[in-house]
Design a protein that fits this description.
about 575 residues; eight-stranded mixed beta sheet; five-stranded mixed beta sheet; about 0% helix; about 45% strand
């Protein structure tokens, strides 16, 4: 089994790390160096010259939707799924979406909705319940903040439910017969949808509908794209507008017919037009460059009509066209830059990172926390006001909750929370206030090593006093129930050790499963259908039978990594790598 190291996820030992300016992972296979613009066409295995949608799954593979099947790209080769070699219900693919559970949903023009399972690498049709329409056109798929997947169709708005191990598509009665082109989540309750008559705000809980922006937009949007700052790009025959849900302001970018818009990780806005090629604007809407099909290489794209735009994790912009296949554009030159105390870091020994919602990188060092502004490449030291002990704490784990609060795990100083309102002002003020979480076991001497979230939005915290599960009472995470999983020498189904290191919530198992690494072995907690937790100790592989032990002092688990392609787990323990 392959073990893929994960530096940013590893257990925080006192080591010297380089802080690089580009942290996103590449494709699973390191792709060759690209020209500034390079075309991927039918000559390279693309099944059709029309590319309607592009996405990237959790394992880094790119997916291309075409009118002759669905293609999976690993950086070198294309694998295409069609009706003749899979259970895909139609070769004419219109849209793609990767959900939180890692499922890839595939919207077709004539075969309804399909789902790709990354574990079995197979495609299944999603059943509609009840079946009420012969119209199987899927225009768009998106997910709201509660985890519900919504499906925009020619004949209404659908949503997915899970019953047992089977996913079903239901159409909302309120929207039966309405043409829904696309949509996106506005907040925890409301959706922004595109209809024939223009955009509307819809609350699924109250069934309330509010018409908006009708003075400016009187027809459907072809696409909606949420930006990192919460604004939403609306593209249509009338051009591109940037909508701010907080103020209802509308920023005009262009007036020519546009099909798709995206924003790269530098804030630049890319617009794919129907008949003018590709445009690049800065975040203020000022045009920077026009990639015209008739310009000489390397500035050319192969078609006037741009149908899909997607920036992958390595910073490459993928451009889907009608008739011209795929193009890929390096938005920035790849280079590694080293930042040290000379550039403003508190200390050269880095522990962990977090990217906040505003794009600011929080960097924990042995000398304190720095805020890194990637636009200006500058650091600002952060002062945390609260109880006196936090001033001397070393932050070992970050987690950003759905409400925008940041949780801080520390060495020997407990668990703290920073309010989202302070976080939004942190880069300007250089200070925030933290409050300490209270619990009979969580106190000022607790050491926290990792904070993660599972599929039910429960938090899991590894520490020197066992593993904690936090079940929030509300979406704001302010109140909730704590469960402490610990070691018991008389119970073979307890944790191997109270010193827990890494936690991995399994995203592909039917029953919720949490993997927990300790300094004396590996545990797995499996929840049954009633939500009851069953803790198991896992026997690790060894070079010979006499070395096989379930819990052992030499089985220090520092990192857990799921390798879905090989179907197992890798655990880095001391100088060894083990697999299951």
């Amino acid at each position: 089994m392959r073990f893929i190291p994960s530096i940013l996820r590893s257990f925080p030992f006192n080591v010297m790390l380089y802080f690089v300016g580009f942290l996103s992972p590449p494709l699973p296979a390191a792709a060759a160096s690209y020209d500034r613009i390079q075309t991927l066409s039918m000559d390279e295995g693309l099944p059709h010259s029309d590319v309607n949608a592009i996405t990237q799954d959790r394992d880094g593979y790119l997916w291309f939707a075409t009118f002759s099947g669905l293609s999976k790209y690993d950086g070198y080769r294309l694998q295409t799924f069609r009706t003749d070699n899979s259970d895909l219900t139609s070769d004419r693919i219109l849209c793609l979406f990767v959900a939180r559970d890692s499922s890839l949903y595939i919207g077709t023009e004539s075969g309804g909705l399909n789902r790709y399972d990354p574990v079995s690498e197979t495609i299944f049709p999603v059943a509609e319940e009840p079946t009420t329409s012969a119209d199987q056109v899927i225009n768009n798929i998106f997910e709201d903040r509660k985890g519900t997947v919504w499906v925009c169709r020619n004949d209404g708005l659908g949503y997915l439910t899970l019953r047992g191990a089977t996913t079903y598509l239901h159409v909302k009665n309120r929207w039966r017969g309405f043409y829904i082109q696309c949509g996106t989540a506005l907040d925890s309750c409301r959706l922004l949808l595109s209809t024939d008559a223009g955009p509307v705000i819809y609350n699924p809980e109250t069934e309330e509908i509010q018409n908006i922006l009708r003075d400016e937009i009187k027809t459907r949007c072809f696409s909606m794209q949420s930006f990192a700052d919460g604004k939403i790009a609306l593209s249509g025959g009338w051009g591109v507008r940037i909508y701010d849900p907080k103020t209802d302001d509308l920023q005009r970018i262009c007036d020519f017919s546009s099909r798709v818009t995206t924003q790269d990780n530098h804030g630049n806005i890319w617009v794919g037009s129907f008949n003018r090629g590709l445009y690049k604007y800065d975040r203020n809407g000022i045009k920077i460059v026009h990639y015209h099909p008739k310009l000489p290489i390397p500035h050319a794209v192969n078609s006037f009509e741009i149908s899909a735009l997607f920036e992958d994790r390595s910073g490459v912009l993928w451009i889907g066209t009608i008739g011209g296949g795929l193009s890929r554009l390096n938005v920035v030159e790849k280079h590694i830059e080293c930042y040290t105390e000379a550039q403003g870091l508190c200390e050269n020994r880095i522990i962990t990172f977090l990217e906040a919602r505003d794009g600011i990188l929080w960097v924990s060092t042995h000398g304190g926390i720095n805020l890194f502004n990637r636009s200006s490449a500058t650091f600002r030291e952060l002062r945390i006001n609260g109880l006196p002990s936090i001033q001397f704490a070393t932050v070992s784990a970050f987690f950003m909750a759905e409400n925008g609060d940041i949780w801080l795990g520390t060495w020997d100083k407990g668990l703290w929370v920073i309010d989202s309102r302070d976080i939004d002002r942190a880069i300007q003020t250089g200070q925030v206030r933290a409050r300490q979480l209270k619990h009979p076991v969580i106190d000022g001497e607790l050491s926290v090593f990792r904070i993660v979230e599972d599929r039910d939005r429960h938090l899991w915290i590894s520490s020197n006093r066992g593993c904690f599960e936090y079940i929030p009472s509300h979406g704001d995470f302010k109140t909730g129930q704590w469960i402490n999983y610990t070691h018991n020498g008389d119970d073979p189904n307890s944790l191997c050790s109270n010193f827990t290191t890494d936690i991995y919530p399994d995203t592909v198992t039917d029953n919720k499963t949490i993997w927990i690494g300790t300094r004396s072995g590996l545990n797995r907690i499996v929840f049954d259908a009633d939500g009851k937790a069953n803790c198991q100790r896992i026997e690790l592989a060894a070079t010979n039978a006499r070395e096989r032990k379930v819990c052992s002092s030499d089985a220090f688990i520092s990192t857990i990594h799921c390798d879905r392609k090989e179907g197992g787990f890798g655990s880095q323990r001391s100088a060894k790598v083990s697999s299951l």
